[in-house]
Design a protein that fits this description.
With 248 residues, the chain is of the alpha+beta class. It is 49% helix and 11% strand. The protein starts with a helix and ends in an 11-residue tail after the last helix.
């Protein structure tokens, strides 16, 4: 696995999507800027993290039953398959750093995309008072919150960078939510999406349905049927908060 090449690919995609080389990114918002891409959130059980289907109309599906941090990593992982994998359809397992070579490449790419090496190194150096210092659980929480990644994804990367040992990582896998809450952070990074967001479709599919309705290519009934099949009842029936907008 050529890590330098994967680093370059991650940096190039950041630039392509209009981001700088080091800042934390909103991976879902960036993905929605990709032409003809639909993003589907759907609970997939415990064995799958996501899937990618490449055709004229592209689809990335994310397992919404995982934590938000893991979903962000999965999206970055699937972007590797979308841009750099020759396979037209990929189904990705839950484990990080496991599976076939292309899956390991996608994980390494995702890690670089969300946590650019220069940015991660700079943050680690700022947290350490001395080079010989070891990263504490407080440091781990600060890093994962800053880059908005799961504990598992961060520990995978830090082991790979020889910043922590496997034994240290094992001790940091316990009490994840409590370790963040005790430091004053919100716990949403470590939890799945709320129930009303677990089944959702965004992006090109919704745009196409709207355009077809405006052009008179489909009836309003067919339009609603398409939206409901994409789990977007909110666009058909509205929400209780419809009509209420807050002025900044």
């Amino acid at each position: 696995m050529d890590k330098l090449d994967l680093w370059k690919k991650a940096a190039f995609l950041r630039k392509t999507l209009g981001e700088d080389a080091t800042s934390p990114i909103d991976i879902f918002t960036l993905a929605l800027s990709i032409e003809r891409l639909s993003i589907v959130f759907y609970p997939m059980g415990e064995n799958l993290s996501g899937m990618c289907i490449k055709s004229n109309n592209k689809v990335i599906a994310i397992n919404s039953s995982m934590s938000l941090g893991r979903q962000r990593f999965s999206m970055a992982h699937e972007l590797f398959h979308l841009y750099y994998d020759d396979q037209m359809t990929t189904i990705c397992a839950m484990g990080i750093g496991t599976g076939q070579c292309v899956e390991k490449q996608a994980d390494q790419f995702a890690s670089y995309l969300l946590m650019p090496p220069d940015a991660l190194t700079d943050m680690i150096n700022c947290l350490k008072k001395n080079k010989s210092d070891r990263l504490s659980i407080k440091d781990i929480v600060r890093i994962e919150q800053y880059f908005r990644v799961s504990r598992k994804a961060l520990l995978f990367r830090l082991i790979d960078e020889n910043e922590i040992t496997q034994q240290e990582a094992d001790s940091m896998r316990q009490g994840v939510i409590l370790s963040a809450v005790n430091l004053g952070y919100d716990d949403n990074l470590y939890k799945p999406l709320p129930e009303d967001k677990k089944y959702m479709t965004y992006g090109f599919y919704i745009q196409q349905a709207e355009e077809a309705l405006k052009k008179g290519l489909i009836s309003s009934g067919k339009y609603e049927e398409l939206l409901l099949s994409a789990n977007r009842a909110d666009l058909v029936y509205g929400k209780e908060t419809d009509g209420v907008e807050l002025i900044d």
